[in-house]
Design goal:
The chain is an alpha/beta fold. It contains nine helices and eight strands. It has an eight-stranded parallel β-sheet with strand order 1-2-3-4-5-6-7-8. The longest helix is centred in the C-terminal third of the chain and has 18 residues. The radius of gyration is 17 Å and the shape is globular.
């Protein structure tokens, strides 16, 4: 079984399909081609013609039991009304997590305005996924996306699960310390490259991720994700095959940890 914990239905480049329905079909085709049973679809921090809203994404995948939505939050809209909207979606079981985009949006993760988000996630037992590290857009401000900032949240909100997306790349040593120290923090390995891994960079990424695996030394703390359509699924699966992992660690990475964190039925395939 494989669960991709980090995908999008956004249109990042002109070569991607122009409609949401077509991008949904393209993601399903990738899942079918590569034996991926379930995928989490993360919505964006902004809404436009190429970045569908939470509701539009939910409507598109409503009849697809293999896709599950994580709601991206626009912090410029964060107020009581938005928290209430998210609460309603969580109560109805329509979303399985929340996603923040520091760096793309310039805000401090430990700003008190964010506390209702963390408490809400803790109340409903869903994770808060946090963009960390490098950004796809060169106009982003990466000082806001350093993975050390997640430590404050993990300490102050012990009943909430946090996911350090992209392992804080290139600050992986900082990310692995936050994960190792805090039992309520995991990391996902997605989005480490654009498109396919190229040989020289793949060697570097393998060394870095293998260091994370060795340091954490816990099969329950990492999750597989691709960041499709930014990263190539086939290339990512080949990358995972090359990681230095025990069978237990690989099983945890590929599906077991995501099934637990997102509340997916263990062992329920769909391909």
């Amino acid at each position: 079984m494989i669960i991709d914990c980090h995908t999008h239905l956004n249109r990042y480049t002109p070569d991607l399909p122009p409609t949401l329905a077509q991008r949904h079909a393209a993601l399903r085709a990738q899942m079918d081609a590569h034996g991926i049973d379930h995928a989490m679809v993360l919505t964006s921090y902004t809404v436009n013609d190429d970045r569908p809203s939470i509701e539009d994404t939910l409507a598109q995948v409503a009849d697809d039991p293999r896709l599950h939505v994580v709601a991206g939050i626009d912090v410029t809209r964060l107020d009581g009304a938005l928290v209430d909207e998210l609460r309603t979606l969580l109560q109805a079981g329509r979303i399985r997590g929340l996603k923040l985009y520091p760096g793309y949006q310039p805000f401090e993760l430990n700003n008190p305005m964010m506390h209702p988000v963390y408490r809400l996630a803790g109340e409903f037992g869903v994770p808060v996924m946090i963009h960390t590290g490098d950004t796809y857009a060169n106009m982003a401000r990466i000082r806001y996306s350093h993975p050390l900032a997640v430590d404050d949240l993990a300490v102050d909100f012990r009943d909430t699960t946090f996911v350090i997306c992209h392992l804080g790349n290139p600050w992986m040593p900082d990310a692995m310390q936050v994960i190792y120290k805090n039992e309520n923090v995991l990391g996902d390995i997605c989005g480490l490259t654009l498109g396919e891994f190229q040989p020289r960079y793949e060697r570097l990424a393998l060394r870095m991720v293998n260091d994370v695996i060795a340091f954490i030394n816990d099969p329950t703390r990492l999750m597989f994700g691709t960041d499709w359509p930014i990263s190539d699924v086939a290339s990512y699966l080949k990358f995972v095959e090359k990681l230095e992992m025990t069978d237990e660690e690989r099983e945890g990475l590929l599906w077991r940890n995501a099934a637990r964190v997102f509340g997916l039925p263990a062992g329920e395939g769909g391909a």
